[in-house]
Design brief:
The complex is a heterodimer. By secondary structure, chain A is α/β, with parallel strands linked by helices. In chain A, 36% of the residues lie in helices and 17% in strands. Chain A folds into three domains: 23-122, Alpha-helical ferredoxin (Fumarate Reductase Iron-sulfur Protein, Chain B, domain 2, Orthogonal Bundle); 137-231 and 382-450, 3-Layer(bba) Sandwich (FAD/NAD(P)-binding domain); 246-377, FAD/NAD(P)-binding domain, CATH 3.50.50. In chain A, the strands form four sheets. Chain A has a five-stranded parallel beta sheet, sandwiched between helices. A five-stranded parallel beta sheet of chain A has the order 5-13-6-7-8. In chain A, strands 9, 10, 11 and 12 form a four-stranded antiparallel beta sheet that branches. Chain B folds into two domains: 6-317, Alpha-Beta Barrel (TIM Barrel); 324-400, Alpha-Beta Plaits (2-Layer Sandwich), CATH 3.30.70.20. An eight-stranded parallel beta barrel of chain B has the order 3-4-7-8-9-10-15-16, surrounded by eight helices. A four-stranded antiparallel beta sheet of chain B has the order 5-6-14-11, with no helix packed on it. The chains are: A alpha/beta, B alpha/beta. Chain A binds chain B through residues 27-28, 35, 39, 41, 57, 60-61, 63-66, 68-69, 72, and chain B through 66, 262-264, 286-287, 289-290, 292-293, 296-297, 300, 390-392. The structure holds flavin-adenine dinucleotide, flavin mononucleotide and iron/sulfur cluster (SF4) (3 copies). Residues 37-40, 43-45, 55-56, 59, 98-100, 107, 109 of chain A line the site of one iron/sulfur cluster (SF4). Chain A: InterPro entries: 4Fe4S_Fe-S-bd (IPR017896), DPD_II (IPR028261), FAD/NAD-bd_sf (IPR036188), FAD/NAD-binding_dom (IPR023753), Helical_ferredxn (IPR009051).
């Protein structure tokens, strides 16, 4: 990667900065690694995968040269398995559970999974089929990983499925929210295509609640599944948020994935507020866009930060600076209405709050100013309260009430899965892999309800 | 989805993957688990007069960190009463009517002994019989197993006795502990066998513990030779299968055994003339679940090759396996090193320089970078460099087909004619 300091960035460098960072395993590398796997029975790696991918089986198939079978094993359990191989926090999941951690080095399960799914992407193979038609219709609101997984499973069970997706393309945050240098858009779109190939009707540019009403869905379909995820980053609630140069982290990342990369950030000083994985993504995107100084400020300390250790490491290597115990209080602009300075206050840790973490409290008279050109807020995501209410469903501050066995909301005919229900909490970030698993389970619950 | 089912001398199974007679097929519980996992057939652990087994029975060779490259055992035939085994065979067959259950048998080389066990086993309902003339330890000292399997007359006679009463197909399982396996295979044919299976295990001593000076394995400080199997024996088994398959007078179907660990091994055995394959060590190493990739991999392979049936593979390579004297002496291959792929380990260079024909040059290019080049004219095409090369595609063996083929046998007969000619002239 080229950063602003090293040399002047060209448009070509910018583009290159957003290429996938990790190379695919070379064939020999993959075979060597596959042969190192012990092929454990009732393998802990498999049990640690939220979608339950049969890891030893897919690795064994790779070792025997059966890459098709290997890819099928993965995608059977996880319809977004190609995305997950790139974005899953594997050291917290499968690789963290690998028995070889204790005696040697864990198997590079994520990389092997990427190798196998790359094979599937490079070879035009049909791995799954739609089921015998059941003459039942299911509407899915939101085409992210949860919606896509549910759609694929429902199709395999023979149901007619229509996905209503607000954006121009399906895939949800996989397509729009996860940085290109970890997840190229083409991977997510390939997964969308696999679902479409099974006969799922995906209606893009169609926002439920605006272009089509919840009532219509309830009337025209036997069941409705809500998988709308979460919304934009909420406002900080401080003065100066409307100045130019203040961004929403998710929107900022989306721009790098959908618009031509702009040179406007080259040489700029940026501050990202928050210390979850979204903050890290926004910060590394800024560096790759040419910003010369990028700081992440967080009101608590490294201990409480929700970003994964490997993400934290990645950001530090990219040159992101971290400032702990720092709370923004006011954004100040210049005469043109552009961000100029950020006023912050120093914090210290007080008594533990309800999450068990020590609550940060301001240190008296500790306000200070930082010069800055760009401010990015990355303090979580808002909830789709309007839509939930338009469906007339019970919720708790935007978190849908759900029966976690039947995946039913307060209305029997309406089901839900993914971030819209489980989303991020104070304790950790939401994951694609969990959304995919919940989508699968919701699909089985819907199938069960519709078949009786 | 290709048709994976096979028919071995009238014994049908949903796929070619059978468990060989060995610990994996010791009981009904195990065989039923195996069928549930997908195995197409099972040859029950050898039945006979129950024996007493020793404690400490197996050992294995580890090669460069890979466990179970080869496997060795000093176990005997079943140590469970015949009645118990028969009852479990009956129950298993009832639950899995479409899977093949073959009873492996071993008794003293006496006609009435064979008649008795064949009748008892067939009465319970099996799909076929396999005569174990192969076990190389313990049983051999009692005149059974490989002791009778090494003597063609005994193989023929015992097969004949079995055939006198057997109503189901009879497979004769051959021992590899013999100079020419086609001799005993032919004897089986003469005795009326419907099929042969091979190989059983190879005489072996796994190792010696250099600290205690005990054998590996040992039983209270003493050891004995055992039977060797697993991946290490595959080439030996494949050759024996091929020799039988190409033998003009051995025209009965073959069940291939020995070191088969995955679908690719199975395809090789089938191409070399096996109708199905039997597996022991790989299942013992990883459990019954390995059959899932065997089935899936074979199916994908057949689809890729555009073949509708697994049985279309059988024997396709047999006609290509010939005597040395029938190989073309004018055909030439020469190594070519691909500098883009080469990682400069120099392993090919040193192997050729020290132990082959000194035809790889170490050169420096215009940029001062070192590279390797084969002097193709000097290369004899031995393959050694490409064998030791760790990188796929870094060394290609380039073919130079001969304009006129000439085998050793043709050359000899030409020379013969010339000599005869000379004689007539002089
Ligand atoms: C910046 C960022 C980085 C992340 N990085 C990772 C990571 O590295 N690894 C990881 O595992 N997870 C990561 N996540 C989390 C992960 O992306 C989510 O958990 C996951 O995408 C949730 O899936 P979902 O299907 O529930 O929702 P989403 O992916 O949000 O999809 C919801 C879909 O619904 C559509 N929609 C919304 N409202 C409507 C409506 N009214 N009508 C029709 N359609 C509608 C949306 O357009 C969207 O397509 C990240 C999240 C963010 C924000
Ligand atoms: C522990 C053990 C016990 C065996 N017992 C028998 C037996 O009872 N009867 C028999 O015919 N073969 C027996 N065999 C030989 C196997 O059936 C098979 O022929 C041999 O192991 C080669 O196959 P493999 O390389 O797949 O293991 C035994 C093998 C092992 C490892
Ligand atoms: S490591 Fe433990 S679980 Fe694995 S084989 Fe050895 S003893 Fe059994
Ligand atoms: S735990 Fe590790 S070694 Fe065992 S099957 Fe999983 S990846 Fe392979
Ligand atoms: S496998 Fe281990 S535990 Fe089982 S019988 Fe053999 S020695 Fe005992």
């Amino acid at each position: 990667m080229k950063s602003a300091e090293s040399e002047l960035l060209t448009a070509v460098d910018l583009k290159r900065n957003f290429f996938e960072v990790k190379q695919d395993m070379k064939p020999k590398e993959a075979i060597d690694e596959a042969n190192r796997c012990l092929y454990c029975y009732d393998a802990p790696c498999m049990n640690a995968c939220p979608t339950g991918i049969d890891v030893p089986s897919f690795i064994k198939k790779m070792a025997s040269g059966n890459l098709k079978g290997s890819a099928r094993d993965i995608l059977d359990a996880n319809p977004v398995g190609a995305t997950c191989s790139r974005v899953c926090p594997t050291s917290e999941l499968c690789e963290g559970a690998c028995v070889l951690n204790d005696v040697s080095m864990p198997i590079r399960i994520g990389d092997l999974q990427r190798h196998a799914t790359n094979w599937a992407m490079d070879h035009d193979v049909d791995l799954f089929e739609s089921g015998v038609p059941t003459n039942t219709k299911v509407a899915i609101v939101g085409g992210g990983p949860a919606g896509l997984s549910a759609a694929r499973e429902l199709r395999r069970l023979g149901h007619e499925v229509t996905i209503f997706e607000a954006k121009e393309k399906a895939g949800g945050l996989d397509t729009y929210g996860i940085v290109s240098f970890r997840l190229p858009q083409s991977v997510s779109l390939w997964e969308v295509e696999q679902v479409e190939k099974l006969g799922v009707d995906i209606r893009t540019n169609c926002t439920v609640g605006k272009d089509i009403s919840p009532e219509t869905l309830k009337n025209d379909f036997d069941a409705v599944l809500i998988t709308v995820g979460m919304g934009q980053v909420p406002k900080l609630g401080i003065e100066g948020e409307d100045l130019t140069g203040v961004y929403d982290a998710i929107q900022f990342v989306e721009n790098t994935k959908t618009k031509p990369l702009t040179e406007q950030f080259i040489g700029k000083r940026a501050i990202v507020i928050g210390a979850g994985n979204t903050a890290i993504d926004a910060a590394t995107c800024l560096i790759r866009s040419g910003a010369s100084h990028v700081k992440i400020i967080y009101r608590r300390t490294e201990e409480e930060m929700t970003a994964y250790p490997f993400e934290f490491e990645f950001a530090k290597q990219d040159g992101v600076e971290f400032r702990w115990l720092t709370q923004p209080t006011k954004i100040m602009g210049d005469e043109n209405g552009h961000v100029k300075q950020l006023m912050c206050v120093q914090m210290e840790l007080g008594q533990p709050d309800e999450s068990g973490r020590r609550r940060p409290v301001p240190v008296q008279d500790s306000s200070f100013l930082m010069d800055v050109d760009i401010v990015v807020r990355a303090i979580g995501q808002s909830r789709h309260i309007d839509l939930i209410e338009a469906f007339g469903l019970n919720h708790d501050s935007g978190i849908l009430q759900l029966n976690d066995k039947t995946y039913q909301t307060s209305n029997d005919q309406i089901f839900a899965a993914g971030d819209v229900v489980y989303g991020s909490t104070e304790y950790g970030d939401a994951m694609v892999v969990s959304a995919a698993e919940q989508g699968k389970r919701a699909a089985y619950a819907i199938d069960k309800k519709l078949s009786c | 989805m290709a048709d994976l089912s096979v028919n071995l001398a009238g014994i049908k199974s949903p796929n070619p993957f059978w468990l060989a007679s060995a610990p994996p097929t010791n009981s009904g519980y195990q065989v039923q688990r195996a069928f549930e996992a997908g195995w197409g057939g099972a040859v029950w652990k050898t039945l006979g007069d129950p024996v007493i087994n020793v404690s400490s029975r197996f050992s294995a060779s580890t090669f460069n960190g890979q466990k179970v490259a080869g496997f060795n055992n000093i176990e005997l035939i079943t140590d469970r009463p015949l009645e118990v085994n028969l009852e479990e065979i009956y129950e298993t067959k009832k639950k899995f009517p479409n899977h093949a259950i073959v009873a492996s048998l071993m008794v003293e080389p006496k006609q009435e002994k064979w008649h008795e066990i064949v009748k008892k086993v067939e009465a319970i309902g099996v799909d076929g019989l396999e005569l174990n003339f192969g076990c190389p330890h313990g049983m051999a000292e009692r005149g059974m197993g490989s002791a009778s399997g090494q003597v063609p007359e005994l193989v023929e006679k015992q097969t004949y006795w079995v055939k006198e009463v057997a109503e189901t197909p009879v497979i004769v399982k051959l021992t590899p502990n013999i100079t020419d396996v086609t001799a005993t295979a032919y004897a089986a044919v003469q005795g009326g066998a419907d099929s042969i299976s091979l190989i059983n295990t190879i005489n072996s001593l796994m190792g010696v513990d250099i600290h205690s000076w005990n054998t590996i394995p040992h039983v209270s400080g003493k050891g004995t030779h055992g039977g060797y199997c697993g991946p290490a024996v595959k080439p030996i088994a494949l050759n024996m299968v091929a020799e039988c398959a190409r033998h003009p007078e051995i025209n009965i179907p073959i069940s291939g055994i020995g070191g088969i660990s995955n679908w690719q091994d199975a395809v090789e055995f089938m191409l070399m003339g096996s109708t199905n394959v039997q597996v022991c060590t790989a299942a013992m190493h990883h459990g019954f679940r390995i059959v899932e990739d065997m089935i899936d991999g074979l199916n994908n392979y057949l689809d890729e090759k555009g073949l509708a049936r697994a049985m279309d593979l059988i024997g396709q390579t047999v006609s290509k396996y010939q005597n040395w004297g029938d190989l073309d002496l004018n055909y030439k291959v020469a190594a070519r090193i691909n500098p883009e792929k080469c990682i400069n380990c120099n392993k090919c260079y040193i192997s050729c320089e020290d132990t082959s024909h000194q035809c790889i040059d170490r050169l420096i290019d215009a940029n001062g970078k070192s590279y390797l080049k084969v002097r193709e004219d000097d290369c004899v095409g031995c393959n050694l460099c490409s064998i030791v090369c760790p990188v796929d595609g870094a060394i290609d063996m380039i073919e130079y087909p001969s304009e006129v083929a000439m085998t050793w046998n043709e050359r000899q007969s030409l020379l013969g004619k010339m000599t005869i000619g000379e004689e007539t002239v002089s």
